[in-house]
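Run log // design_07
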């Protein structure tokens, strides 16, 4: 696969288990690399730990510099499940309940509360989703 088909991040191996390698990556917002980031308060850099299935043919140890990659299509699926579906679910329930009840307060509360079972389902199926969204170490 070419580099254009993958999203890559440099990282450092945090720790290694028998079946997984945990890599620490820096997730940066677009403005965190801006030369004027000191002038505003929206610059955002967050450290995340990513679990990657261990390749038995490769050996990693704590502190190793690695490059973590994921296919772009998997990134699109993640955005779809994490942002786009909940947005349309929220708007759909808001409009639907507002149309049926006419009460804006109930419609707003219902729209927010519908996200609880949605994200709970994502949590329940997290192990299945882990198999779908797999990172690799290059």
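design_07 sequence
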């Amino acid at each position: 696969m070419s580099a254009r088909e993958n999203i890559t991040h440099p990282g450092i191996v945090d720790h290694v288990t028998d079946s997984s390698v945990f890599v620490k990556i820096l997730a940066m917002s677009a403005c965190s690399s801006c030369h004027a980031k000191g002038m505003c308060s929206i610059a955002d850099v967050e450290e995340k730990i990513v679990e990657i299935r261990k390749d038995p043919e490769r050996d990693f140890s704590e502190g190793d510099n690695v490059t973590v990659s994921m296919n772009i299509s998997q990134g699109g699926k993640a955005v779809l499940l994490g942002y786009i579906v909940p947005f349309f679910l929220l708007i759909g329930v808001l409009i639907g309940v507002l149309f049926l009840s006419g009460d804006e307060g109930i419609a707003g509360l219902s729209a927010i509360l519908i996200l609880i079972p949605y994200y709970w389902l994502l949590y329940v199926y997290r192990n299945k989703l882990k198999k779908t969204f797999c990172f690799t170490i290059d």
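Residues 72-101 form the longest helix (30 residues).
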